[in-house]
Here is the input.
Amino acid sequence: MPEAHIGKQRKATQEGSSLRAVGWARSLPLHSEVRAARDWARDHLKALGWTTTAPETVDAVLLTVSELVTNAHVHAHSNAQVVMTWDEQCLHISVHDASSEPPVPRDASTERLGGRGMFLVDALADEWEARSCRHGKSVIACFHAPAEAREAKGAKEATS
Here is the structure.
């Protein structure tokens, strides 16, 4: 099954309240176009209303999806399993591949193409991390809700 809807979930938190989340999943074979991942992600961002309310955040998410799927295909020589989860505070983009090697940002060079993907992810996402697991790794990028991201950026700039 190439795409799955994870659906709404409730998860108990330590305070005893619950957290609602909705998510989607898609598997992209090694030889699939990265554009398919962007188009898939854009459709779900449109469903969240972000394409009209937060186009800059949408652009950042789509570029991040492109970079992470490209890394899975090019560096891990692997299919990419993409999961997007929205928990009303953060949009999590998780891309799993078959390599256990963590992503390593390379120094930029004018003599070769590429090597800037993780620098882009670091600049665009509010947070990101790589997690090793039994059958490879997952790289997860988090994007705060568009209104929260603007408020956080304003507060950060005010203290700078």
Residues 1-14 have pLDDT under 50 and may be disordered. The chain is about 40% helix and 30% strand. The beta strands are 3-5, 9-12, 18-28, 80-86, 90-97, 127-133, 136-144.
